[in-house]
Amino acid sequence: MAMQTTWPSSDSSVDGPRTVRWVLEAADCKALAIHRMARLGIDDAVAPYERVRLQPKGSFILICVEGSGRMLLDGRWQTVGRGMACMAPPRVPNAFHALPGKSWKFLWLRYDEPAFVAPLVSASSPVKLKVDTKHLQRLWEGLKHEWETTRDARAVHHWVELIQHHARRLAEPWRRDERLRSLWEKVQKTIEHDWSVASLAHEAHVSEEHFRRLCWRELGRSPIAHLTSLRMQAAQDLLANTQDKLEVVATLVGYGNPTAFARAFRRWTGCFPSDYRARS
Fold first, then answer.
1. Which of 87, 105, 139, 272 has minimal CB crowding within 10 Å?
2. CA–CA separation, 46 vs 36, rounded Å?
3. What's the pLDDT tens digit per position in 219-243?
4. What is the CATH superfamily name and number for domain 178-279?
5. pTM here?
């Protein structure tokens, strides 16, 4: 399989003959449905393995425990290696695939979250983080072992609760730095403002260089990428829930030029604002 470098055009699910998967569905396990988990699993993925969901109904979390693969994050393909957790919010294209000649083992968790529900992973959540994969793998493996053996309802519930607890902690924005929490909460309320790295750093009372380091450490992305994520989420909400003209939406989320807004929206979501509104 050729390495993906462009936006996928349609949903797909390809395993290939050498991929090994364990999947638990909410339809079979009531404990998952309590937290709106649609399914979770452990994949030992081998090319041509791939998954594409252009409009996923819920949050998605992937935790790499061995090897490496590629995932579409922030509108571009990025390599995901051992010890990395990646998160994607609902209704934003979600895609990932195994690389030829490379093994890739990962834990994953997909939610089913209607539009009226606050998703676990939001535009404010980190896009990727370094994590303790050994501990998280024990949780997934513990649930798998219980499900395949005794299947005691209380024990299953216990494992699912632990997984949900850690998933929520991963998705919490600004986990350790109060300056970032306060700053980005203000930015969300004033998303139309002409924010720059300099003004964001000034608001957080740190130097620009230190601010960049904080964002990469806590959010897995640059300050401008995180600002764009918040703007795109605000734009999606406006496009789906109002009849405002595209020029108005662009202004409300901080773009003075509608064309620049449309281009940014397409880079981030894979489609133009008008197309997104039409299918919402």
1. 272
2. 29
3. 889 999 999 999 999 999 999 899 9
4. Homeodomain-like (1.10.10.60)
5. 0.89
